[in-house]
Design brief:
This protein is α/β, with parallel strands linked by helices. It has 16 helices and eleven strands. Helix 13 links the parallel strand 8 and strand 9.
């Protein structure tokens, strides 16, 4: 699969801080439960994991939001926990409870036995989905590949589930940092191989989701999250068939550490809604592009409010390139789909005067 430039390459150019006619937009979790067509496909699949592990279903749901909205990118439909599942931890999704692992990392011997899976073997279904989606897009918009960060994956692998106070992982961090570093090193190796395999299969830009890095202290963030993301960025394929493959790093709750994040070699930083976009732009200068950062809850209000708040985000960033409009985190399942229409239209329309 070649990485020929898509017909709409606005996202790729904005991530590389090249001139664009308007601010591109995509939405974290844009293929999801707020769309009735997604829920219908998920019901046909039988379960969330069955949906994730079928390239046909993944292609179908990846394309669904693009059929509704003139978005500037598709993002691979998958889950960040595919890697630890491939490590044998036994991922399952209980209705109403979120993800759980049947065999979380509890003992030292389990951690010492941990190894990175070969994505071409254990995660072939994801790579097949990437290739199939890329073919179905037919050069229209770029395809985003992604992974969870080593620390975020470790949280689920050690705690056994999400939505915790991180008691187990933080106890390990302070009492046995050597064990946590072992998990993180394996995860970094696995994520690097996984993302590179996605590029080889057709992904044209990559994103690393550090969902739980913001739960760390400043010193712990640098040692246990940022340093490992830097290792990954250094090991990624950054050019494919003559085209740059931009890399975005997103730490939810990481607004205090933007300068350090901008120094790890990524092309862009994702920002949550707690960060002032204009201030972030001043802090990082021209080192990286910025992605974000509308509060997802704005989409619960009516279209007029959505347009007003989107305008505030655009105004905060100001004129010029280097901004990809997005939410500050994933879209809620309770979002009215028509409000996304108002968001995409207003960003495309109002941003043109700023370029």
């Amino acid at each position: 699969m070649t990485a020929a430039r898509p017909r709409n390459d606005t996202l790729l150019r904005a991530l590389l801080r090249q001139p664009v006619p308007y601010t591109p937009i995509w939405i974290m979790r844009q293929a999801g439960r707020y769309l009735p067509e997604y829920n219908a496909t998920r019901a046909r699949a039988g379960s969330f994991l069955d949906l994730c592990k079928s390239p046909d279903f993944c292609t179908e749901v990846t394309l669904q939001p693009l059929a509704r909205y003139p978005l500037d990118a598709a993002i691979l439909f998958s889950d960040i926990l595919t890697i630890p599942d491939a490590m044998g931890l036994g991922l399952r999704f209980a209705e109403g409870e979120g993800p759980r692992f049947e065999r979380p990392l509890r003992d030292e011997w389990e951690i010492n036995d941990l190894s990175a899976p070969d994505p071409h073997d254990h995660l072939r279904y994801v790579l097949d989905a990437v290739s199939q989606i890329r073919k179905a897009l037919d050069g229209s918009v770029p395809l985003i590949g992604f992974s969870g960060s080593p620390f975020t994956l470790a949280c689920y692998m050690i705690e056994g589930r999400g939505g915790t106070e991180f008691e187990r992982v933080k106890t390990m961090l302070y009492a046995r940092p050597d064990l946590l570093h072992k998990v993180l090193a394996v995860n970094a190796q696995a994520v690097t191989a996984y993302l590179n395999a996605q590029v080889e299969a057709g992904a044209q830009t990559l994103m690393i989701f550090d969902t739980w890095g913001g739960a760390l202290s400043a010193a712990a963030y640098r040692e246990f999250s940022l340093d490992y993301m830097q290792r990954i960025v250094a090991g990624l394929i950054r050019e494919r068939d003559g085209q740059r493959v931009p890399v975005v790093v997103f730490t939810k709750g990481g607004g205090l550490w933007l300068e350090a994040m901008a120094d790890i070699g990524a092309d862009a930083l994702g920002l949550d809604w707690t960060v002032d976009l204009g201030e972030a732009r001043r802090r990082v200068g021209d080192r990286v592009a910025l992605q974000g950062n509308l509060d997802p809850s704005v989409l619960f209000a009516g279209p007029e409010v959505v347009r007003r708040e989107a305008g505030k985000v655009l105004q905060s960033f100001g004129s010029g390139t280097g901004h990809v409009f997005n939410l500050g985190h994933g879209i809620s399942r309770f979002t009215p789909p028509e409000n996304v229409t108002a968001l995409v239209d207003s960003v495309h329309t109002e941003s043109r005067a700023r370029h």
